Prior knowledge:
This protein is mainly α. The chain is built from 9 helices and no strands.
Amino acid sequence: MALKNVALKTKSPSMPTNARAGGGIELYLKRIFALMFGAVAVTALASYMTIWGGWFVYLINLQTGGFTWLYYVLLFGGLALAIWAQVRAFSFRPAVGAGMLMLYAVLTGVVMTPLIVVALTVNPVSILSAFIIAAVMFACMALFGYKTVKDLSFLGIFLFMGMIGLILVGLASFIWPAMLGGTFGTIICFIGVLVFALFTAYDMQNLKRAYAVLGNGAQKNQLAVLGALHLYISFIAMFQYLLSLLNRN
């Protein structure tokens, strides 16, 4: 929500002429995407190392088929870290914020390994397919959010409610795993992809607005880290929902 609060200080979704004409926004966006895709690479590496080293067995209870206490510690620890990093985004030095982003990326990569292992077992090609589809969708929605003159702020409340709903369904599935089977699980995957695709456009427009009102270079660097975190979460969420969708059978 910190990103939205900064963006709300602007009076218009359009950028000032000097910012559009080369006031540093290109460098700002390069920094955001470099951090974001760096975090994606760290997540991929963390997943690979966890699977290659055989450590994912410590995340799965082989007797019950559920997850171990370590999985939940990493899952909720990562969620708490992401929330705290967003709330305190403008209190950290950019280097510290970037370090927290990479730590969150590592935790995410480890937590994702059960899903990746299932995909490797059922349909290995689905991992590449999900990544390509997520990347194309992300690029299209990010470009739309940056270029559109339509104010997307009306989406905020609906996207927030959708994200909370997805989190609640995810938490409930830990208690009743069967609830995500069949048609309901497929619908949840489609909703998840849609919500985070729209979040990508929404966040890009907010990043564009926020850049226009922050005159301090250090704050813009802090904002770049915050923006990278938001976009990273959207991309990874789309990838996970797409991967689940491609392996529904």
